[in-house]
Amino acid sequence: MTIKELQPTDLWNYFYEITQIPRPSKKEGKILAYLLDFAQKHNLEAKQDKAGNVLITKPATPGKENAPTVVLQGHVDMVCEKNNDVTHNFETDPIETIIDGDWVKANGTTLGADNGIGVAAALAILASDNIQHGKIEALFTVDEETGLTGANALDKNFITGEILINLDTEEEGQIYIGCAGGKGTKAYFKYKLKDVPKKYFWFRVDVKGLRGGHSGSDIDKGFANANKLLNRFLFSLSRKKYGMVLSEISGGNLHNAIPREAHAIIGVKDKYKEDIRIKLNTFLAKVQEEYKAVDPGLNITLETVEIPSKIINKRTTEKLILSLYACPHGVIGMSHDIPGLVETSTNLASVKMIDENIIEIGTSQRSSVESCKEDIVNMVSSVFELAGAKVTHNDGYPGWKPNPESEILKIAQKTYVELFNEEPLIKAIHAGLECGLFLEKYPQLDMISIGPTMTDVHSPNEKLNIPSVAKWWDFLVKLLENIPANA
């Protein structure tokens, strides 16, 4: 069986088509062309703004002309992560999907169900001739994953709807009415290249096998951070007699993904080469014990490599290792208003050696409280500024304050109970959604966010639960039918 044979067929067929279209963040041209072609084939009005966002409009079905206009919204880009042993070009290659029991996953890459399944649902509704609904505006935004730039650039007159249903959350049976705001902080270390010392032995250290995950919705699960683990081992060597020097370091990729893999090329004095192997085995046993419940695949390997041509100067190496050790990662605070909700967090996302002898550290901060977001941004900045690094920030994005009195929320709750004879959970999410930006531009919007069940998004372990897709689809269709006419 392929995903095109799953039910509901129309929805899964559109999702399949989307998986065949490369759509990395900031390189969404092919999927945008697909959407505009879709609108033309179905005789639907479509327009595109300067940022690339696409809006496809469908008239109300007979009898629903007086219902409020509903915006169905999803983002077209996907997080592009793969395992190191997988050959895949996200700019040219389709995603290979696999059905594994009740789940759909990809072959060693991210699946792109975040938010491809939301886009597919909107297309299936636009194409349908047997679903009752008021006027639909399907809004497809670009570049959500690397900064919500499509939503941020959205023109204030681009949509007209009164209700917005965001299709970008990951737990069926839960209706989201709020999200965290976020900001990115980067630190830059300028280093000098030095000659390789003599009578040294050279290793490559690799941290791998981690789950990774979404830096918002998975940050409270305690998954290991490859950058933190690698640096913890390097720290243990730098404080001892080994004379450790650093030639190369790299880990993680995207600001919104907990890093799964990291590596460094290091040298130690010849006489300590066996000591390092013993030390790594001891260290690995300790951290595997620490993370056995949440990251059972954790592994750290050590292999001999050729002598490098140059090393990073000692002072920069020391500052880098100390600051990475001191840099916070994970949950910083829990909400005092919503039980179980992470309020504030930070992700030590990436360590990269870039041009002109610079090491770039990427981090991401989130909070549902604006003052707390700025506080954790300042905390992270302080760590790297104390180490002499240059620190920069992006503009960030606002949170979405929950509105428990929302009319669309009340209709959604009632619809869910009618369909499934159970109450949905009403929640806020620690991940960033585009809803906060929409609310800034369109303060009249009444919004909720819903989605099917997904796990391990932003990692190659990403999975989409098949039964939940059908249930979510039935809910969305019935919800559109149940939205009453304006008084």
**Number of DSSP E strands:** 23
CATH superfamily of the largest domain: Zn peptidases
Distance between the termini: 48 Å
Report the biggest beta sheet as strand number plus sense, adding barrel if it closes. 6 strands, mixed
Outline? elongated
Averaging pLDDT over every residue, what do you get? 96
CATH topology of the largest domain: Aminopeptidase
Low-confidence stretches: none
Q: How would you name the oligomeric state of the polypeptide chains in this document? A: single chain
Description of the molecule:
The protein has 2 domains: 3-179 and 399-482, Zn peptidases (Aminopeptidase, 3-Layer(aba) Sandwich), CATH 3.40.630; 183-393, Alpha-Beta Plaits. It is built from 11 helices and 23 strands. It has helices at residues 9-19, 29-41, 113-127, 149-153, 226-238, 273-291, 314-326, 370-386, 407-420, 435-441, 466-482; strands at residues 45-48, 54-58, 70-75, 97-100, 103-106, 136-141, 163-166, 174-179, 181-190, 193-194, 200-208, 245-251, 262-269, 299-304, 311-312, 330-334, 342-354, 358-367, 390-393, 425-429, 446-449, 454-455, 463-465. The strands form 6 sheets. It has a 6-stranded mixed sheet, covered by helices on one side. A 5-stranded antiparallel sheet has the order 16-17-18-9-19, with helices on one face. The protein has a 4-stranded antiparallel sheet with strand order 4-5-23-22. The longest helix has 19 residues, at 273-291. It is α+β, with helices and mostly antiparallel strands. It is elongated and about 85 Å long. α1 packs across α3 (113-127), α5 crosses α7 (314-326) and α9 crosses α11. The protein starts with 8 loop residues before the first helix and ends in a 5-residue tail after the last helix. The mean pLDDT is 96.
